[in-house]
Design brief:
Length: 222
């Protein structure tokens, strides 16, 4: 599902970057990425999603060489085939919860917003405890509720790859478990691959593989 070879990336004007000689993640895997702050965990997710482009090396996702695509092709690939729960959430303040969840369908022609998609958005909201918040604006939600809305948006297109950057970081224990189980069930139902950055080691037993990223040595599989 994910194949990385000789990856090298450095932010312009910075010493900070990511270097991975090789990484392979099988389809359907549930993989947690851990490591100290500044090790490059979020950067790695953004490289896999095609938000960032590597300086050197190859990134293949589901047979597509993402690192070789131009900006527009990477954007279309990401929107149609990757669900990304951003650490910053990136909800739009002027849209309701429902409209935030379906927003990717309204800004890209590769996705079609129909009744089935709307129904799926409401079902996801129900599963995450947001059914009564769909008309609310993000500023009217708690941080945990905003985080759950971002998870719903990432899962709406039923992507083959789900990338979660601290998706449970601001949740209480009950909702933390609810969200991670939702991510796992969604991945299992579609045989999707789940790759999650987390600092919460209590969640690690729910994953079938843990990758510990420690710069500059690179990833260590546990």
């Amino acid at each position: 599902m994910i194949e990385i070879e000789n990856l090298s990336f450095r932010y312009p004007g910075s010493r900070f970057g990511v270097a991975l000689p090789a990484l392979r993640i099988e389809r359907g895997g549930r993989v947690a990425i851990i490591g100290p702050s500044g090790a490059g965990k979020t950067t790695l997710l953004k490289l896999i999603a095609g938000i960032l482009s590597p300086d050197e090396g190859t990134i293949r996702v589901d047979g597509v060489t993402v690192s070789a695509l131009d900006d527009g092709a990477r954007r279309n690939f990401r929107i149609s085939r990757v669900g990304f729960v951003f650490q910053e959430l990136e909800l739009l303040d002027y849209l309701s919860v429902f409209d935030n969840i379906v927003h990717p369908y309204r800004i890209n022609r590769v996705l079609k917003l129909d009744q089935g998609v709307r129904d799926r958005a409401r079902e996801l909201a129900e599963q995450t405890g947001l059914a009564d918040k769909l008309a609310a604006l993000p500023r009217e939600l708690s941080q945990g509720e905003r985080q759950r809305a971002a998870v719903c948006r990432a899962l709406l297109a039923e992507p083959g790859l789900v990338l979660a950057d601290e998706a449970t970081g601001n949740l209480d224990p009950a909702n933390k478990l609810r969200v991670i189980e939702l991510l796992i069930r969604a991945a299992e139902r579609k045989r999707s691959t789940l790759l999650a950055v987390t600092h919460d080691h209590e969640l690690l037993p729910l994953f079938d593989r843990v990758i510990d990223i420690r710069q500059p040595q690179g990833p260590e599989a546990e």
